[in-house]
Write a structure and sequence with these properties.
- With 282 residues, the chain is an alpha/beta fold.
- Helix content is 42%, strand content 17%.
- The strands form two sheets. The chain has an eight-stranded parallel sheet with strand order 8-7-6-5-4-2-10-9. Strands 1-3 form a two-stranded parallel ribbon.
- Strand 6, helix 5 and strand 7 form a beta-alpha-beta unit.
- Helix 4 packs parallel to helix 5.
Length: 282
């Protein structure tokens, strides 16, 4: 887990006075959830301040947070926690650019469950606004639970349209990615859901690893999603080089999130990815 209040040691990779290697092609961020996921495997917790200093030292522009876990911020009403997090990110000049929220029950057959999901998302959107985020990301999860695929698409599209309306009132874009454990795991399904939802503030996430089965070469995936329509891109362990080539050739200029989930060492994975990002931006 990430510990907001843990004592932050002087990080060994920090060099006093080191210039940031930020570039003008795209904005880059670290997914804090990747460090939280690595904690059990590494047998240690990651102090949030340490991770933020690490990200800033490498020239990252921001961080992606999750609605639970990172920094202990769970609700928009956690004013002290929110203030602590803003203080830490402001100190190292990092943006809390996106907040990930659960997509469980977004297409549940039970209307009451979908309504509750919408209320939880609204609370997440309030939190994202207070954190100064640009995006709130939804990853639909779960099975069809007896409904047809057609009904599931309709329910998910309706929930995402509501999410976009909630986001619009708070100045947020809604990024949509897939969960490989969900009933919806293909590019065709994602495109169909977004077409059915028909809201301009809904943006797909460029994340080839989120699809079950190969969605084709990264450049073809980006062409189908549309470089100008993509909310942001997510780079995972093992997929960085091909994705960066596609993003560069597709003239993408938005946010790119490095997600170290599954990497043996999240620090090493993020540092390696940042080096590739800077090289590809030249």
């Amino acid at each position: 887990m990430l510990n907001l209040l843990a004592t932050t040691p002087v990080a060994p990779w920090l060099a006093p006075g080191r210039d940031r290697a930020r570039n003008g092609r795209w904005s880059t961020a670290i997914a804090l959830g990747g460090f939280a996921a690595a904690s059990p495997r590494a047998g240690r917790s990651y102090a949030l301040g340490e991770v933020l200093e690490f990200a800033a030292s490498l020239g990252f522009d921001g961080v992606e947070l999750a609605s639970v876990g990172p920094g202990g911020v769970h609700r928009a009403g956690d004013e002290d926690r929110i203030a602590d997090l803003r203080r830490l990110t402001d100190a190292v000049r990092l943006d809390c650019f996106s907040l990930r929220v659960t997509g469980t029950d977004a297409f549940a057959p039970d209307a009451t469950r979908r309504l509750q999901w919408g209320e939880n998302l609204e609370a997440g959107a309030d939190l994202a606004r207070k954190l100064g985020a640009t995006f709130i990301e939804v990853s639909p999860a779960g099975g069809l639970d007896g409904q047809s695929a057609e009904e599931g698409v309709f329910h998910l599209a309706s929930s995402l349209r509501r999410a976009a309306e909630i986001g619009a009132k708070r100045g947020l874009l809604v990024a949509v990615t897939l969960d490989r454990t969900s009933a919806f795991t293909s590019l065709d399904q994602l495109e169909r859901v977004l077409r059915t939802a028909t809201h301009p503030l809904l943006r797909p996430v460029f994340d080839p690893a989120s699809f079950a089965g190969a969605p084709g070469p990264p450049e073809k995936l980006l062409a189908r999603l549309g470089a100008l329509r993509v909310g942001y891109a997510r780079l995972r362990e093992g997929s960085t080089a091909g994705c960066l080539r596609a993003l560069r050739e597709g003239r993408y200029h938005g946010w790119i999130v490095v997600d170290p989930t599954g990497a043996p060492d999240p620090y090493e994975a993020c540092a390696r990815a940042k080096g590739l990002l800077d090289f590809a931006a030249r």
